[in-house]
């Protein structure tokens, strides 16, 4: 077996993944904090106020990373769904079910902060514009995936059904991204994620990129924590959990 | 400092945005901690009975 295949096989084994994730968690948390603190400071304090939107534009520093991540998490879940369906890797299913509540949270944050920005800027908490509506649908798809998995008792069937639903929902991602191009939306068009140079000042862009990177690591951190908890709960009666419990008790007696 | 918290008159919208986001993410952080601890306790009970 070549190295990649071996690594791939091991990653699919909970007795190998569980301690590895446990070792990674403090490092991922440290990188998250190291990105978050300067990102927040620059975003809230040193970035100059917007000439049109005043200080309210600072909402962007949670709104945009949350919205990006709400789509990134879904794309990651869709890749895992392919892996789960084609190669029957249970770990990929655990990854999807652990990601769904995190993705839902990012979508929720994007919607709420967008609303809090829309009220003073547009004069309305909510409008049925294509960008807002498609993001709301993404939020409901996340809830649907989570509910479906938990509604089916047999986890093998649940995993398969959830993976298929995840793949069906992928259609929403390009709709969200291109909604501001295809339709005449109230929501502004992209300023950073486009092929041209970003139409945003560098002093405003740097904290945005720091916050986006911080949110990436936060996703990884929460994902590892949730996967560990879900694995332990599901595999209660399996050999690798038994080993962990006995090793823990041995360490406690010392 | 007061000017910073005032946010040019947008204090409510800016601090609500950051506050709600922090709260939602904090719940996401605490939930797996509690679940992990509970799962570990259940596993210990399970194997002490066996």
From TrEMBL, chain A:
Where does it live in the cell? Cell inner membrane; Membrane
**Chief localisation class:** membrane
Organism superkingdom: Bacteria
Q: Which Pfam families match?
A: Cytochrom_C_asm
- Residues annotated as transmembrane: 24-46, 66-87, 94-116, 136-152, 164-184, 204-224
Its biological purpose is as follows: Required for the export of heme to the periplasm for the biogenesis of c-type cytochromes.
Ranges where the Cytochrome c assembly protein domain occurs: 31-187
Stated name of the protein: Heme exporter protein C
Species of the source: Thiomicrorhabdus marina
Alphabetically ordered keywords of this record: Cell inner membrane, Cell membrane, Cytochrome c-type biogenesis, Membrane, Transmembrane, Transmembrane helix, Transport
Q: Which family does it belong to?
A: Belongs to the CcmC/CycZ/HelC family.
Q: How does it sit in the membrane?
A: Multi-pass membrane protein
Which InterPro entries does its entry note? Cyt_c_assembly, Cyt_c_biogenesis_CcmC, Cyt_c_biogenesis_CcsA/CcmC
From TrEMBL, chain B:
The keyword Nucleotide-binding is annotated on this UniProt entry: no
In the UniProt record, does the keyword Membrane occur? yes
Residue ranges annotated as transmembrane are 12-30
Q: How does it sit in the membrane?
A: Single-pass membrane protein
Q: Which Pfam families match?
A: CcmD (PF04995)
Where is it located?
Cell inner membrane
Keywords assigned by UniProt? Cell inner membrane, Cell membrane, Cytochrome c-type biogenesis, Membrane, Transmembrane, Transmembrane helix, Transport
Q: What does this protein do?
A: Required for the export of heme to the periplasm for the biogenesis of c-type cytochromes.
NCBIfam families named in the record: cytochro_ccmD
| The family this protein is said to belong to | Belongs to the CcmD/CycX/HelD family.
Q: What is this protein called?
A: Heme exporter protein D
Q: Lineage, please?
A: Bacteria, Pseudomonadati, Pseudomonadota, Gammaproteobacteria, Thiotrichales
């Amino acid at each position: 077996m070549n190295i990649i295949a071996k690594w791939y096989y091991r990653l699919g084994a909970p007795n190998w993944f569980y301690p590895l994730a446990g070792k990674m968690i403090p490092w991922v948390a440290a990188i998250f904090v190291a990105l978050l603190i300067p990102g927040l400071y620059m975003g809230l304090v040193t970035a100059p106020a917007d000439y049109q939107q005043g200080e309210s534009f600072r909402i962007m520093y949670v709104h945009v990373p949350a919205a990006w991540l709400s789509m990134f998490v879904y794309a990651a879940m869709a890749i895992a769904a392919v892996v789960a369906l084609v190669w029957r890797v249970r770990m990929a299913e655990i990854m999807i079910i652990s990601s769904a509540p995190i993705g839902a949270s990012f979508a929720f944050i994007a919607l709420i902060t967008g609303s809090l920005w829309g009220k003073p800027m547009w004069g309305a908490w909510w409008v049925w514009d294509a960008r807002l509506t498609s993001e709301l649908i993404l939020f409901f798809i996340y809830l649907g995936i989570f509910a479906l998995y938990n509604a089916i008792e047999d986890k093998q069937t649940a995993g398969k059904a959830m993976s298929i639903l995840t793949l069906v929902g992928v259609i929403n991602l390009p709709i969200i991204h291109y909604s501001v191009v295809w339709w005449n939306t109230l929501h502004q068009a992209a300023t950073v994620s486009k092929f041209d140079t970003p139409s945003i000042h560098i002093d405003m862009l740097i904290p945005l990129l720091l916050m986006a990177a911080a949110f990436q690591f936060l996703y990884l951190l929460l994902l590892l924590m949730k996967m560990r908890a879900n694995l332990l709960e599901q595999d209660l009666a399996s050999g690798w959990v038994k080993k962990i419990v006995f090793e823990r008790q041995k360490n406690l007696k010392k | 400092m007061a000017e910073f918290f005032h946010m040019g008159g947008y204090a409510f919208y800016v601090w609500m945005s950051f506050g709600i986001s922090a709260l939602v993410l904090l719940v996401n952080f605490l939930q797996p901690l509690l679940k992990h601890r509970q799962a570990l306790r259940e596993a210990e009970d399970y194997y002490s009975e066996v």
